[in-house]
Amino acid sequence: MAKIKIDEKKCIGCSLCSELCPKSFELRGDKAVVKKPNVDKTTCEKEAADSCPVDAIIIS
Ligand code: SF4
Q1: Which of 10, 13, 8, 59 is nearest to 36 (CA)?
Q2: pTM over 0.85, yes/no
Q3: Comparing C-alpha atoms, which of 36, 43, 33, 39 is closest to residue 13?
Q4: CATH number of the domain to which 19 belongs
Q5: Which runs of E-coded beta strand occur in 1-60?
Q6: Between 57 and which of 25, 31, 33, 49 could a Cys-Cys bridge form, CB atoms 3.0 to 4.6 Å apart?
Q7: Domain count, the chain
Q8: Nearest atom of ligand 1 to the alpha carbon of 27
Q9: CA 29 to chain centre
Q10: Which domain holds residue 41?
Q11: Residue to probe by mutation, ligand 1, list 7, 23, 24, 54, most atoms within 8 Å of CB
């Protein structure tokens, strides 16, 4: 089980996470939001977190 969060203050709305992992992230206005904060297993969420230019995605 993993928790996914986005630091809204850091997010610059580049949409990379929603392109890499549309099942978990979507852009709402100029910020990304997490669609499902709790997932059994991280797959593309990890890739999105690694790719986020401002390190706004937190997986714990
Ligand atoms: S990749 Fe990072 S900066 Fe870009 S929209 Fe997602 S959370 Fe925001």
Answers
A1: 59
A2: yes
A3: 33
A4: 3.30.70.20
A5: 2-6, 25-28, 31-34, 38-39, 57-59
A6: 49
A7: 1
A8: 5
A9: 15
A10: 2-59
A11: 54
Q: Per-residue confidence of the chain (60 residues) as pLDDT tens digits?
A: 999 999 999 999 999 999 999 999 999 999 999 998 999 999 999 999 999 999 999 999
The Å distance, Cα 1 to ligand 1 centre, comes to 22
In single-letter form, the type of residue at position 13 comes to: G
Q: In this structure, are residues 43 and 24 in contact, taking their beta carbons and an 8 Å threshold? A: no
Other beta carbons within 10 Å of 56: 20
Structure tokens at 7: 């630091």
Residue among 52, 9, 54 nearest 24 (CA) = 52
